[in-house]
Amino acid sequence: MKKLGLQITVHNIPEGRFMCPGFIDLHIHAPQYSYTGTATDRPLMDWLDHYTFPREAQMQDLKEAKAQYSQLVQRLISNGTTTAVMFGSLHLEPTMLLADTLHQAGLRAYVGKVCMDRNSKDYYQHSLEQNLADTEAFVRHVRSLKSTLVHPVVTPRFVPSCSPSLLQGLGRLAQEHDCHVQSHISESLDNDAFVHALHPEVNGRDARLYEQAGLLTQRTVMAHGVTLTTSELRLLADRGTAIAHCPLSNFYFADVPLDVQRCLKAGVKVGLGTDVAGGYSPSMLSAMRSAVITSKAVRMMHIDAARRAPASCLSASAAGNDGSASSEPVPAAGSEHHEGSASSPALAHQREHAAAQQQRSAVEEAAARGTLGYKEAFWLATMGGAHALGLQDTVGSFRVGKEFDAIMVDTELREPFDVFSTDSLLDRFEKFVNLGDDRNVRAVWIQGGLVIWK
Ligand SMILES: Nc1nc2[nH]cnc2c(=O)[nH]1
């Protein structure tokens, strides 16, 4: 280093500590931080009206907003989050203040003013024109910070809150200003029912409305997507639109779990989000654990469905996934008798035997489905998020030429887990992912700058 004329201090990392890439939280609502850990008792549409809109509206008190946003940003960094994709609130000033707070703290962030022009109370919705004008003003404000870390995001809240004209206008703004887009898509059955009542012309499908408005782009991150159909997943993949998987909040709102492997197989980019306050933890370690548990639950559901499927379904599914006929079709139990058939006990026994065999195969097939482990969850929380944001050459892993967004993890604290001489470095890493918390995150760097040292 001296030869190169560089003044560099070399630090040796003590035994029991390691560095890893910082976490990328792909979906979080900043003005919901104050009630994180409470308000876990209502379904989505009710939860929004009852808790969320009133609390977000309180951000108009700029002193309160400053206090809450500063605390949130410190909490995120302390937990090892180095990039966050954030919803602000409906109002312009508090959301500009949020962007300023992120800029001052040095957190890498994509942040948006929330847009809503229907289906809320008057105190928490604006006209189409005001939403568009404020979004433009917000984009200009963030760009005026000249930050390489904080970027504006065009942010329609979700279809129930945004008229088609607003969606269209926001699609135009995103294109004109070359911005990222964030929203919610197909989050729950109550969302889908609401959208169906509003838009029977597109069969109530969020994806169709976003597509029509030009909001599905390669810079779009859509939260949830649990009820997306296969053709909608293909559409997202074609457009380069990513899904922010928010497994913890899905347990509360979603009705069905997101099958991450199905999304990845369809070519959709997937990362992880905390979805504070729908998700009650701001920690990405918690999001990783919930992602692993969700994928185990998806496998359980497949196994259970195979176990419960009546023989008639199994004989249909035994036709194979490609729809081709199986070599020995098994008439369904209780189906119309065929020539010289059920009267023979031997034939009935043969059918029962074949059906049981098919059921065993279906269960085995379901049990053989892969699930996410801690390594895959960690990948989603780092490289998955980086791909979702188009930052795969900038952050998410350690590679020459990337920016240094990193955390130093200490596993020697005896808190909140123990390590033993028998533990390898990989064991320590797995314990951190499964058992660790912010106490283990001893230092955080973003774009090479130290932002916390504890
Ligand atoms: N989880 C969640 N879903 C939403 N859908 C629309 N708004 C929200 C929100 O604030 N949180």
TrEMBL record:
| Annotated region (Disordered), positions in chain | 317-362
E.C. designation(s): 3.5.4.3
Ranges where the Amidohydrolase-related domain occurs: 18-299, 340-451
Q: Cite the InterPro entries for this sequence.
A: Amidohydro-rel, Guanine_deaminase, Metal-dep_hydrolase_composite, Metal_Hydrolase, Metallo-dep_hydrolases
Reactions listed under catalytic activity: guanine + H2O + H(+) = xanthine + NH4(+)
Record's compositionally biased regions (Low complexity): 317-327
Enumerate the UniProt keywords alphabetically: Hydrolase, Metal-binding, Zinc
Q: What does this protein do?
A: Catalyzes the hydrolytic deamination of guanine, producing xanthine and ammonia.
Name of protein: Guanine deaminase
Its source organism is Coccomyxa viridis
Lineage from the top down?
Eukaryota, Viridiplantae, Chlorophyta, core chlorophytes, Trebouxiophyceae
